[in-house]
Amino acid sequence: MQLKIRLLSSVLFFFLSTSSVQAFEPFLPLPDRPPIPPDNPLTDAKILLGKTLFFDARLSASTRNNCNSCHNIMAGGDDGRAQSLAEQGQLTQRSAPTLWNSAFQTVQFWDGRAGSLEAAVDEHLKDVQISGLTEAQLVARIAGIKAYRQMFVHAYGADATVDLKGISQALASFIRTLVTTGSPFDRYLQGDRQAISAQAQAGFSEFIEVGCASCHFWVNLSGPVPGLAFRMGEGFYELFPNHPGSDEERRYQLSADLGRYYVTNDVTDKRMWRVPVLRNIAVTAPYFHNGSVMSLEEAIRVMAKTQLRLDLNQQQLGRIAAFLRTLTGEYPIITMPHLPSE
Amino acid sequence: MQLKIRLLSSVLFFFLSTSSVQAFEPFLPLPDRPPIPPDNPLTDAKILLGKTLFFDARLSASTRNNCNSCHNIMAGGDDGRAQSLAEQGQLTQRSAPTLWNSAFQTVQFWDGRAGSLEAAVDEHLKDVQISGLTEAQLVARIAGIKAYRQMFVHAYGADATVDLKGISQALASFIRTLVTTGSPFDRYLQGDRQAISAQAQAGFSEFIEVGCASCHFWVNLSGPVPGLAFRMGEGFYELFPNHPGSDEERRYQLSADLGRYYVTNDVTDKRMWRVPVLRNIAVTAPYFHNGSVMSLEEAIRVMAKTQLRLDLNQQQLGRIAAFLRTLTGEYPIITMPHLPSE
Questions:
Q1: DSSP letters of B167-213?
Q2: Spatial separation of the C-alpha atoms in residues A100 and A97, rounded to whole Å
Q3: How far does B114 lie from chain A, in Å, by closest CA?
Q4: Considering the entire predicted model, what is its pTM?
Q5: pLDDT value for B231
Q6: CA dist., res. B262 & res. B113, Å (int)
Q7: Cβ-based contacts of B282 with chain A (< 8 Å)
Q8: ipTM score for this prediction
Q9: What is the least distance, in Å, from the CA of B245 to any CA of chain A?
């Protein structure tokens, strides 16, 4: 069931605005591990298989693009583009979201159309625009490589054969390891009051007071996470723009894409979007579903205007931006996979 | 000075064919480290900077291609294509050679036109077809990123500023760490007689006896290495096809590209090529400067025919291929760099 979030937001806004900063349960350090679905237990064999596939461009028709082409985990987990370049060089519909910490989301994609990482990966691999391959072609490519057949046996057992489900489960398993703990904000929440500057602390208070935290709360600052009020597959959505008719809406064409409506055909879903993750936001420009805004301060200004009908001044923007910059976490050390040749 | 190699080959052929396999000094295990030029000492700071730049697609105009796009070090160090895809998607002149162990070569590129890795990197970065950027544009991009400015200071000292020389030196430093020791053949040379099969051992003898080893000898099986008879910058070239007029020459268009002649305009350099590295040859198909041959056995057959005027039978091809497959080394563990956002 899709929850209509504005009601929930109001409740949370009330809760947040009447509590002291220190008491905010809604802001929690990022756990080391995201929730693991019971039907895809996390194993080293699946993680290694997934990491190898993630960098293997044979998952694209051209053998030129891999998962990392658009979701660059050597950087912010995205590609820094307004829209990504699909298999034939055409622009994708929306800006690639970061994969870092995406496993804490209850739904995937900007419109929340995938209820799990497995479903999101599965859809991408079967998308002729994205991979350029049919399912049969893609599976045949991987199944044709002896080392992959062996890795499937290690990951799924002696009788395992290469199939799309196994590929998707392995990729989802690897993505679940993409967690950036240790951000200054996390250290602040854990009691190190010096971990973030006085300006960032003031920005954190302002972030709550002006209303950003009505949607951007809990471990990923994107609303409920699995096990915290929401179950996996339940989406946390918000209307964007919430207050229509602004200059910002026109300038950045924020209403051209109807978001979740394209998934449900429910008119109440027009311009409803999954609340985006704010972790690592300082390193994942450009912003919004259409990547129309390059600077963090401008993104904050637009959000305040379109969502809260507020005109923030430069000091406020600077403080909130300083806070958001404390959300950049530490990247885990990842060794490069070795892509098998045969 | 370019050495005319057919004379040297004849000398070596005589030497090789009159010695026993065990006594062959010309075949040596790959050292851990290649020669380091005195004007670019290898340091951890330069290696880290080079590794980061190697994966940074901001070194291409489109921000879509990095060094790894064509020289994939998660695989055989190349891209598995007959010709690579340049910045605008156009085909490059020749097949991308592997970067693994390339630091043992005395010259770089198929035609040996670069006398050092630094020169090769420098040429690529300034090549509008390859990077799509002018030197000034490229340097400005990197210099505009604070973290890179800091890495330059770490690598080159407090007064260092970002320039193409520093970028090339760092990339060359990283490439010098791309060494695959521990191949079965190396273990065999080090005394483990079980490291390669009886068939591969027979193939090794055959490789010498039929004449392959006349050019493909020493640590990289590509002729002299720096410090071993040759100095860095001195190229070891061979005519290919050596015996013109074969069916193979026509079928694979082996003579269409005049090789080193385009560099020197010396008619005696027509169809002269740097002798390619045979290490990891089994995982770096397709073969030859134009990538015209996909299978290892066919590449061996073509070489025997065009270079030695020999028709090898299936058993001989199988044995030599078995030997060449023992040249696949162990890839070092490389952690992923983190590409700075600002």
A1: HHHHHHHHHTT------HHHHHHTT-TTSS-HHHHHHHHHHHHHTGG
A2: 9
A3: 27
A4: 0.91
A5: 80
A6: 9
A7: 341
A8: 0.88
A9: 33
